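User: I'm preparing a small set of examples for a lab meeting where we compare how different chains pack in three dimensions. I only have the primary sequence for this one, and I'd like the structure in C-alpha cell form so I can line it up with the others. Please keep the answer compact; I'll paste it straight into my notes.
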Amino acid sequence: MLYGTGTFGSGRDDSSLDRACDGSLAQGGLSAALHSSHLSADGEGDSDYLAACRVRNAESGPQSGSLELKLRWSTSKAPSSTLTWYNEDYDGVREQAAPLGHGWSGVVRYEGGTYQVMVALDCVNQKNKALVAYGDLLGTSNGTTLTGLGRVTTETAEKAAEKHGCQVRAGKQLTGLSTARLGTPDTAKPLQQAQGSCVALRRTAAAQSDTPEIMEYPADPDAPQTNCYLVTKAKKPGYGLYAYYGAAAKDFLASEGDQLKEGYGPTHSDRDYAWATATCPRSAQQAVFVLYHLHDRDTDTYPVPQYSASFARSALQAFTDHEAKQRGCSDVRIMPRA
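Assistant: Understood. Below is the C-alpha cell output for the 338-residue chain.
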C-alpha cells in the first residue's frame, strides 16, 4: 500500500492533487468526501488501469479517511470481483446497488463499511467504448461524504474522458446522495405498491410464491445495474432480480467466470437461479439478467424454503421484458439450464 509524499501538517497538498490520476482528479467534492481540507494524494501505480490514485486526509483516529479511484476503458480487461463486488448476489441484499440519478450512468454500492460509486460514461464518438470509474470511500460515511465521493468519481470520469478524446453526455452535479439501503423490515412494502425497479413483478405469481412484498429502488433507465427483491411475509428477501448493462455486465460476467454457462450458481454447487440476455443499443456487451434464490446469512436458511423453477422463469421473463422495453433492448433470451 502506498502512502502520500506530501506534508500533511502544512495543509492541502495542491501539487499532489493536481498530479493525481494522471492529472484527471476532480477536486470539487474532495473536502466533503473526506470531511477535511487538509489533503494529499499519491498514485496507486496499477498498470491494469488507465489511471489510479488515492487521496488521504490528515486526520487521525475515527476521523481519518481516504478515497481510492480507479479508471479504465470498458474495452479493457474487467477488474477482479474484489473491486466490483458481484460475487455474493445470492446472499440476501448484499449486492444491492442504488442508482446515482441526476442523469449519470452510475450506482452506489456498500460492502463491509466501504461505499463505492461506479460510473460508466459512453463515448458518443467511439462506438462500444466507455470510460469506467470506481471510487471507494474508506472511513466515516454519511450523506455529505457519500455525495462528495459521488462528485469526485463522476467528475473525474468526465475529466479523464475529455482528456482522452472520449466525448460523453455527463449528468448534472450530484447532490443529496443517501446512505439508506434496502434490507431492513421497514424497507419492504406490498408487491402491488411497486412502482420502481420491481414494477414488472406486480402481475406475476410472486404473492402466491411466498413473496407478497418487495424491496426496490426508483427506476432509472441510465443506471448500469438494476435490482429488485421479492420479500416474504417475515420481511426477508426470498428472490433477488438483477439487471446488468454495458461495463457492469462485463464486470459481472468476469466475476462469475463460466459458472452461469455451465449451469452452476455463484456457490459452484447450487442451481437455484435463472438468467437471460438481451442486446441493447448502448454497448456491444450483451445485457445480463439474473434471478437468484436468496440465502439469509443471519439464520443460515433460505427464506423461501422451496425454490420454484417455473416461478423463477416467469418472474425473470417479466423483469427482463420490462427492463428491455425501458432501454430499447431486443433479442431477449431466457437461457437454458445446463
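A couple of notes for your slides: Confidence is low (pLDDT under 50) at residues 1-10. The helical segments are 14-23, 30-33, 81-84, 143-163, 246-256, 309-327.

User: Perfect, thanks.
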